[in-house]
Design goal:
Number of domains: 2
Order of helices and strands: HHHHHHEEEHEH
Number of strands: 4
Structural class: mainly alpha
Bound molecules: zinc ion
Helix content: 55-70%
Distance between the termini: 44 Å
Number of helices: 8
Largest sheet: 2 strands, antiparallel
């Protein structure tokens, strides 16, 4: 793969990704603080309700954090070259989801100062929340520089087969599609960016050809093919 085929996130995409990463990290810090405070103050028979409230709060915060984290990886994905770094960056949401509950789960189940019933309820709730936080953080379709580069190559070939100029496509800020025609109904009247298919990926993290534009360009390329045949015949 030559360098020019390799995906490189645009500066805007990188800065957006950095912003999302910061949100995720701040949220994980908040979840950790709630966890530590819960361990210190809420493992008791008298504060079971507050403990459950804290568990729900931590779960909500960790789910939010991993959503931001996943978004950042879509915009500015890691390379697969360093396997450990790729794994950690892709799956950090799951790892942090578990870490935001595991110490609490251990402390509840090993506590000597609470009743068996409290232990079962609080420990059970924290275990369920830990599982939910972990699973919601798992990235099942991890983005990578290599995967994006491959996808861009594939899309370039496909778009060319429809007769699309792969160096001049259009996209709006929202949405994850690029368009072959700037008068497409989906982007009409919107503030448009234009550039190559690769540019659209680098700006948005992920991009695919709009279905309407695909149909229209297919038709156009069939028509021009027919015209060429006619010209040769004549
Ligand atoms: Zn379109």
């Amino acid at each position: 793969m030559s360098n020019s085929d390799t995906f490189v996130a645009s500066p805007e995409a990188k800065s957006k990704a950095k912003q999302f990463r910061t949100y995720a990290i701040l949220a994980w810090i908040a979840a950790m603080i709630v966890q530590v405070m819960s361990i210190m103050k809420l493992i008791s028979d008298d504060t079971l309700i507050m403990m459950i409230v804290a568990i729900v709060a931590i779960l909500a915060i960790t789910v939010l954090a991993s959503t931001f984290w996943k978004k950042s990886n879509k915009l500015d994905p890691p390379s697969e070259k360093n396997g450990l770094k790729f794994f950690l960056q892709s799956q950090l949401g799951a790892i942090m989801g578990v870490l935001c509950f595991l110490p609490m789960v251990i402390m509840i189940f090993t506590s000597n100062s609470i009743s068996g019933k409290t232990k079962a309820i609080a420990g059970g709730a924290a275990s369920v929340a830990m599982t939910a936080a972990g699973i919601s953080g798992v990235e099942f379709d991890a983005a990578s520089i290599e995967k994006y580069s491959e996808e861009i190559k594939k899309q370039n070939q496909e778009a060319k087969s429809f007769g699309i100029n792969t160096d001049k496509v259009y996209w709006s800020k929202a949405g994850n599609k690029y368009h072959a025609f700037n008068d497409c109904q989906y982007i009409k009247g919107k503030n448009l960016n234009s550039g190559s298919i690769k540019d659209s990926w680098e700006a948005k993290g992920i991009s695919e050809l709009c279905k309407v534009c695909q149909k229209k360009s297919k038709k156009a390329s069939v028509a021009s093919g027919a015209k060429k045949v006619l010209e040769t015949v004549n």
